[in-house]
Amino acid sequence: MHNTDPKNDIRPRNVIRIEGARHHNLKNLTLDIPRDQLVVVCGPSGSGKSTLAFDIVYAEGQRRYVESLSAYARQFLPQMDKPDVDKVEGLSPAISLEQQTATRNPRSTVGTVTEVYDFLRVFFARLGKFYCPECGRPIAAQTTDAIVNTVLAMPEGTKFMVLAPLVEHQKGTHKDLFAKLRKEGFARVRVNGVLHTLDDAPELEKNKKHTIDLVVDRLVIREGMAKRLTDSVELALARGDERMIVTVLEGDGPGRDIAMSTLSTCPSCRISMPRLSPQLFSFNSPQGACPACNGIGSVDYFEPDLIAPNRGLSLNQGGVIPWKSAYRQSQYGPQLKKLGKSHGFTLDTPLAEFPPEAWHALFHGDPATGWPGVVPLLDLSQQQAGVWDHWTARFRQSRPCPACRGARLRPEALAVRVADSNMDEFTSMSIQRALEWLQNLEFTGHETRISEPLLKELTHRLGFMVNVGLEYLSLGRNMSTLSGGEAQRIRLASQLGSGLVGVTYVLDEPSIGLHPRDNERLLGTLRSLQSRGNTVLVVEHDEPTIRHADHIIEIGPSSGWLGGEVVFQGSVEELLKAETLTGKYLRGDLFIAPPETRRKARRAITLRGVSTNNLKDLDVSVPLGVMTCVTGVSGSGKSSLVMDSLYRHLLLHMGQKANSPGTIRGIDGLDLVEKVISIDQTPIGRTPRSNPATYTKIFDEIRKIFAGSKEARTRGYQPGRFSFNVKGGRCEACRGDGQIRVEMHFLPDVYVTCEACKGKRYTAQTLEVEYRGKSIADVLDMTVRQAREFFANHPALVRRLDVLAEVGLEYLRLGQPATTLSGGEAQRIKISRELGKRNLPGALYILDEPTTGLHMHEVGKLIRVLHALVEKGATVIVIEHNTDVIMASDHVIDLGPGGGEHGGRIVASGTPEEIIANPDSVTGGFLL
């Protein structure tokens, strides 16, 4: 429906007009989206919001731009499918900022994605100075004139010597050197810091290291000495391989040495440095990357706890997983017996009873017995294979590179400093602190002109990142560790710096991961984009964002095939009067009531001395058997505590792979947890073959039902006959896909319905088998609600279908491709699979921002589902900013008080009521 109020009349030239939109579940929509305004699209999860915003507005804008290019250029660009829509008018170039999971490329950091790192490389190359990594002294290449002028600048009357370093810490008597110097007419040398004439040069011990400096001249600062000084400096540099020493004589002491050089070489340590260039600071370039880790910052290694996860087993029982085979036992048996005799164990001794030194010898080798060690043997087999072995990868962990300690750069790059920081130290600062550091820098002389444009660009870009609430991140943070909301706001900050005008920005829930305290800054950022003359189209469930919109479009009335309609379009004031789901929640007709009672925990997991990332040596008790919410402002350390520390150490305890587990002193109560499950919003499958039925194992039950039918038994069909993933019953023309992909080169690939099966995925013979008049293809096309009624006589199947309905997914088709599901739908399908289990004692579920993609009404359903998990004996830990979820929790751990270096402490802990009563809690103020 379109608002026709004269006050809000929108002329066609100021709108994006969409006519006949039927893409996915949209029901032939026709609407006008006002341009140059902040427009919010809201509605239930799966109602069609993203289809409208991304698949139509963004995709069509992008597609038209790409089609304006040459055919040659188009083949290098991703092609957008043409949406199912009759007409789209008034489009401007579109930019999409989605909250998809950040890139998995280990080389992508916050600095590289925002392009700040490119300016930083120039900044350090043009304004940085080398400092010797050994002695810490500045290294600077000077001209002969510069050296002379430095010496002449000393006070008049200063006595000094000009020396040339000849021998540095080298063994020998050096008699030949002394004889040669005497022959050349030199008179004095300094041997091991003591002056001698060459005629009485000391006898040096052959096996000791010595240092010998040639005294070229002895001078006093006075007028008219510049010519002699210049000659002496040139001679000293010639004899000292472009290095020399000026020793200032003070009283009767040995004097104060000043090392000088015309090379970027430390005059004392003789360490040479390369020419300063931006490439030296790139960890993606061989010139700058750490040679040990190739610029990744981490290295893989074989972890004994993964190689032998069950220490209750002996070597003979297969305690070392890679050597379970009889061949391996016979190959290494004699050597292991010899090792056992030396360290007090047999091949039947459980690994748990191995003394620490025996455990170390088993895995890392024992020179005394000649045993090479499990880890070196696995390393050797990996090298001999010459390829990445996916089977042995399960035994490998990653850890910071021991050479660069995670800095990614080679030592020469880390030896360059601006003021007091090198590149790694700067990129490890929080963005807020890095911005302050840059603003406090002072340069003189020609460096002032060089620094001005660089500082301007760097401070502007870092300022944009602060404006979108990311001041707690560091530029060196790997993009794969960020939430979808953080990654989206980083891209938003990059767009702020571009200064584009007349563009349509399409954003997907930019408030994800933001504490309510930080929402105002994000809204200010969106406003700044809009005020420049851009259209900002935001898919959002966040109430403050909806209330700040110029125009609101609500899609509904429900999800899936029950949605796809415009149920409201207009201003905030009009929405507050509307009888739509969002309108009722905004004015308080509908709300999520907190539980009347809070559960009390009897047991807990206790983490001691947690100092992961910005956490400040915390001791934390996480109660078991209740629902706990970990909250706090953005960057306060929530993920560091729950995901990096608790979750990864639980995985390690269970013998599962966990890269870079957090830094803790100890953890108690691990044995109280039998399994740990992290439920996030990643897709349940990456191909159309995956769907709700296959993921939840409902399809297994359905295939058994069909295989048990009279017709199937007569034909001898087994359950596998009804799978579209294996040969037998599936259509081989499309291999069970139901459609065939046709490559179109520089045009988007075209998917055509398979002519053999007409899109049904199965052979005609398979489709002839029916259950209650429906084929297997008909069942896959049913919704959860329809399937529940159809299979009412099968309690086990109905129970699983009921769980899907319980999480609010009764509208989903059983065979809907996983690639078409929203993040919120994928997450709830995962939860439903766990809910389908009868009892869950000892199970611990961790959910990171589960309200992403959920409407206020669905948040209430999610809360009920999470409490259902707890009622079955499970423990639920939620990282969340949503106030309704916090209020529904039994226990709250509030971190803060700020983000980044200002966070990492427990501000408050207890029931939601205790959090509200705590004046130190920022979160508590938003729960009132």
TrEMBL record:
GO BP annotation list: nucleotide-excision repair
Keyword flag Membrane: no
Swiss-Prot/TrEMBL keywords: ATP-binding, Cytoplasm, DNA damage, DNA excision, DNA repair, DNA-binding, Excision nuclease, Hydrolase, Metal-binding, Nucleotide-binding, Repeat, Zinc, Zinc-finger
Pfam families: UvrA_DNA-bind, UvrA_inter
Chief location bin: cytoplasm
Keyword Isomerase: no
Localization per Swiss-Prot or TrEMBL: Cytoplasm
PROSITE patterns named in the record: ABC_TRANSPORTER_1, ABC_TRANSPORTER_2
GO cellular component: cytoplasm; excinuclease repair complex
GO molecular function: ATP binding; ATP hydrolysis activity; DNA binding; nuclease activity; zinc ion binding
ABC transporter domain residues: 599-928
NCBIfam families: PRK00349.1, uvra
Family: Belongs to the ABC transporter superfamily. UvrA family.
Protein name: UvrABC system protein A
Organism, as annotated: Pseudodesulfovibrio alkaliphilus
Phylogenetic classification of the source organism: Bacteria, Pseudomonadati, Thermodesulfobacteriota, Desulfovibrionia, Desulfovibrionales
Gene name linked to the record: uvrA
